[in-house]
Amino acid sequence: MDNELSESEEGFCSLLKSLATPPSFTVLRVNTRLEHRDVIQHQVQEIIKKQYEGRKRPVPGVECHPLLPDVLVIPNSGPHVDLEKLKLEVIVDVTCGMAVMRGADVFAQGIMGAPVGMHVGDKVSVYADVDGTCRRGLVKQFQERKLFVGNGVAQITREALYCTEEKASGVGIKMTEALYSAPSLSNILPNLVFAQNLPSVVCGCVLNPQPGDTVLDMCAAPGGKTTHLATLMNDQGILVALDKARQKIDKILTNTARWKLHCVHSYAFDSTKACELKSTTVPPDPPPYPPESFNRVLLDAPCSALGQRPSVRNKMSLKELKSYPAYQRTLFAQAVKLLKPEGILVYSTCTFTLDENEGLMEWALTEFPFLQLVRQDPHLGGVGSRGTSLTAEQLQLLQRFDPGSPLSGTDKTPDNDTIGFFIAKFVKNTTR
Q1: Concatenated DSSP letters for 201-222?
Q2: Which of 134, 205, 303, 350 is an active site residue?
Q3: Beta bridge partners of 113
Q4: pLDDT value of position 3
Q5: Is 321 exposed, middle or buried (0-12, 13-18, 19+ CB in 10 A)?
Q6: pLDDT number for residue 314
Q7: pTM for the full model?
Q8: Which of 113, 151, 154, 415 is 20–30 Å from 329 (CA)?
Q9: How is the chain split among helix, strand and coil, in percent rounded to 5?
Q10: Confidence of residue 39 (pLDDT cuts 50, 70, 90)
Q11: What band does 5 get if pLDDT is binned at 50, 70 and 90?
């Protein structure tokens, strides 16, 4: 028992350490409908070479993933603990700071505090406000909890940030020496490249929609998985993408237009009401839809998102954390109703709690005995976690990407050093 506890504590500490750092690889999904992967690989490599001209790090190579035919992989580096901390300090919000750790420059909107007299061209150190206590426009040095994320060059003055009526936008600090060095992906070949965490790409491959299918993406924004599914379908068939927020639908429309995809039909609609028994609507017309309208359904469910990396602060309450499974069950029940017999349902989250993952699968198999867990292809992650009534065989069919795995040095690969993620695949049997 003591050994089990010790292993559990060690695993938890490893998890917290991993969550505070970015993955060791940048993953790009490429638009193979418009261009060959090798051509895009060369174009990306040339762009990164130019990016790194102002950095003091070797230019990383752009490699093709050995198993995923539409994926490019770029190794990141860090932490670079030898960086000099400069006299001029810029404070950014924590979201901006985490983006910098994955290769982004600092955009003006994320700057909370800047030194008096900061001019364009000044070299500055950038810190993330860990607890969100910095007031916008701070003048004096920030004394609260902050995380150093690197050095850069100011592209804007303090006056332009805070002393004009016009809202500042664009790059505020161009990062030249980041704590974690990764390529900046802002506006890189937007019609050919989509930055995506590797498990999210795997998720689309597991659903494996075919040309001519009728597919539902229930919680689709911002459209990464949607564009992937449409590409796998070779833009042939019907793909309905739903999300509650109108502004999120606009992002999906932007991404599908960039990728020249026409089979996607996006609607601002609450997926908990997507199935209506008396409906006569046929996809791709707007929802709600009658039961058994889709060959394949992707439910990338809203979740606690505890697997996102890097993450140095989480303000979620226990009440909020416990609210997700009930919402996920409601969405799952709708997905099952909308799925045709012999259809395929893929459920995924970017979290690692048992209640939102294996616990929900345990409920689903009891509630819908005609559902069957099936093998996933590809299966690049680990298997399901113990702690429910799921059998060892069923756990083998689940796919977990665990950021807390004890990895070091050459053991890190694009497949195992990822965000936390969970995937389950079901077939709806005709016998009920």
Answers
A1: HHHHHHH---TT-EEEESS-TT
A2: 350
A3: 91, 138
A4: 53
A5: middle
A6: 78
A7: 0.93
A8: 415
A9: 30, 25, 45
A10: very high
A11: very low
